[in-house]
Structure formats: C-alpha cells, structure tokens
Amino acid sequence: MSNEAALIAAAKNGSASAFSDLVRSYREGLLRFLLTRSSSYADAEDALQDTLINAYRYLNSYDPRWRFSTWLYRIAINNAAKNYTPPTIEIGELSDAENDPLLHCIAASERSNLWLTARRLFSDEVYAAMWLRYVEDMSVKDISSVLERSVSWTKVNLLRGRKALDADLNRETAANERKAYG
Fold first, then answer.
1. Which is nearest to 46 in space by CA: 62, 36, 31?
2. How many CA atoms lie within 13 A of 29 on its CB side?
3. Which candidate among 39, 46, 157, 178 keeps its CA 20 to 30 Å from the CA of 9?
4. Residues of the domain holding 129
5. What is the CATH number of the domain that holds 145?
6. Residue 165 and residue 181: Cα distance in Å, rounded?
7. Residue-wise burial string across 51-81, b where 16 or more C-beta atoms lie within 10 A, e elsewhere
8. 168 with 117: CB under 8 angstroms?
9. CA 91: distance to chain centroid?
10. pLDDT tens, 62-102?
C-alpha cells in the first residue's frame, strides 16, 4: 500500500492529521489552479478552503480506482465555479488609457505572458485543461475526469489550444519585429 493510500485509509477512519498530511502536497498546486479560476486571491483562498473541507467531508465517497489528485481537482473546480465572476474591465476600456504609459507597459507585458494570453484566448474549460496539463502535469485521462469531458474532447482542445497559442504568440513576435526594424 502506498503512503497516499495509507493516509487516505487513516483519514477515512477519522484521522484529521492523516488528512492534513494527505493534502499538504496538493495545497500549493490547488491554490495556483484556483487563482486562474477566481476573481481575486481571497476568492481563490476561499475556494481552496471549501475544497479541503468538502474533500474531508466526502472522503468516504472517494473511489481509489482514480487518482486522489483528480478527485481533489474536481472538487476544486466545483468550488471555484460557485464564486467566479469574470473581470469586466479591460485595459482598452479604462478612461484615460491612451495617455497613460504605465497602462501601455501593462498591456505589452500581458501579451508576452503565456498564461495571460491563454486566459484571453480560451474558454474556462479549455484554459483549465491547458493549465492542468502543462502546469500541474496531469495526464489526459485525469484531465478528462476532472473536467468531466471525454478523452477525445481533452486531446482535441489541448491540440487546438497549443495551435492557437502558437499562432497568437507568433503574430505578436512578428509585430514586435516589424516595430523594432521599422
């Protein structure tokens, strides 16, 4: 029996310390993931807390045929979805954006940030799939379980996501080169 399986068994038998040990290694990754699905850091922390409470409360429903991390991320997605409201202000919508050089710097740095670009390009589900694959290093099968989508959907959207990011970043690189070399 693996250490994780032993901790799950002990936690199912009521050991709060075993549960704490079990989720300790997932906390940082879950918080990072929830930050991408929350309106603020506080909302992400709240969703993390709700995730851990729900995981403890429903631990007896965990099926060991699946990876524990998959089950935990599914709970996290459900908790984040309850509290998420997408930001409504875009940089271009700010009142004096044309005259503020700081806003131009922010806009340029956003375009060069891969995950901000992905956030702009993709739906929440596709963004989550990309994040789980390339940041959390989850398998396609586990991502499919977390997102409650088919393996085919996951593979297709990961491929489309990579192509869309590549096209967008190449378009931006070409535009920057044209500016630099006039």
1. 31
2. 17
3. 46
4. 97-181
5. 1.10.10.10
6. 24
7. bbeebeeebeebeeeebbbbbbbbbbbebbe
8. yes
9. 23
10. 988 888 999 999 999 888 776 555 444 344 443 444 444 43
